[in-house]
Design brief:
The protein is built from seven helices and eleven strands. The chain folds into two domains: 87 residues, Vaccinia Virus protein VP39 (Rossmann fold), CATH 3.40.50; 145 residues, no CATH class. It has 285 residues and is an alpha/beta fold. It has a five-stranded mixed beta sheet. Strands 1-2 form a two-stranded antiparallel ribbon. A two-stranded parallel sheet has the order 3-4. Strand 10 and strand 11 form a beta hairpin. Pfam families: N6_N4_Mtase (PF01555).
């Protein structure tokens, strides 16, 4: 706890004298200050502060510094699951801790990466860090939340589904099968299958089989479908899982940003830059 002690005012340590309690204990003022109290007096980030990033939920580095010092040692691993402006990762880097930062917001990752690079460059110049680099990993397919409509339409084209706009539940046909497309923001779940089962109960004369299209599935889904198909000679269910299906899989790809640029000099002071083609980091083929 010595790292987070609150220093006494100047002169307090010199003036303070050792006291003996009624139990015979000798009490001295700790030279590094008193232990932190329940309420911490930490100033907010003012508008001119160097650490200010204009991120809405940014916390003062002084706050994270105290928390990290109190709860970890140099070399320990600090995890921030909502990295935001990167204050936790930056402070951990400065304090000689390893760190992991996660965020669904690409802007947050970009901001954190940029600020960390500045810190690491300075540390390398001063030979102050054991951790001179870091990596960025893309996990899962959260971009589909931003491309929901486009992703579904691409899946329809990829598989060859004939769209049906008149049915409130099913999305189209694939051959003779009715097609149900599961929201790409979550994997196929037992709840989705229960909703399908409830819908079929409303259609006792429906004898067509069902094709479900999903992006991922829960582990319990496959045995449920197997059991369903054993008991139902009609309305059999076929699953097209767009990550692993033998015929329709490989729907998703991860690409780095690519651009085809044409640069033309207009005069000594002007240059025309034309972006003829651009592929953003995306997951939809």
């Amino acid at each position: 706890m010595d790292d987070v002690r609150i220093p006494y005012k100047e002169g307090t340590v010199k003036q303070a004298k050792a006291k003996t309690t009624s139990f015979g204990r000798v009490v001295k003022v700790h030279p590094l200050g008193r232990q932190p109290e329940d309420v911490w007096q930490i100033s907010i980030i003012n508008s001119q502060a160097r650490e200010r990033t204009a991120f809405a939920t940014q916390k003062p580095e002084a706050l994270l510094k105290r928390i990290i010092k109190a709860s970890s040692d140099p070399g320990n691993l600090v995890l921030d699951c909502f990295v935001g402006s990167g204050t936790t990762a930056r402070t951990a880097q400065k304090l000689g801790r390893r760190w992991i930062g996660c965020d669904i917001n690409k802007g947050a990752i970009h901001l954190t990466s940029r600020e960390l690079q500045k810190i690491i460059v300075k540390q390398i110049e001063k030979k102050e860090t054991k951790y001179p680099n870091f990596s960025i990993y893309k996990v899962n397919d959260y971009d589909l939340q931003l491309l929901k409509t486009e992703a579904i339409e691409l899946a329809v084209q990829h598989i060859g589904i004939q769209r049906m706009r008149t049915d409130a539940f099913f999305d189209g046909y694939l051959g003779k099968n009715l097609v149900k497309i599961i929201d790409f923001n979550h994997p196929l779940t037992l709840l989705d299958l229960q909703l399908l089962q409830d819908e079929l109960k409303k259609r006792p004369d429906e004898d067509r089989d069902i094709t479900i299209v999903s992006l991922g599935k829960e582990l319990v889904v496959a045995p449920w479908i197997d059991e369903w198909n054993k008991k139902h000679p009609v309305n059999k269910i076929r699953l097209i899982e767009l990550k692993t299906d033998k015929k329709y899989g490989n729907f998703l790809i991860h690409k780095s940003a690519e651009a085809k640029i044409k640069v033309e000099r207009i005069d000594k002071r002007k240059t025309l830059v034309e972006i003829q083609n651009f592929i953003s980091p995306t997951i939809v083929e």
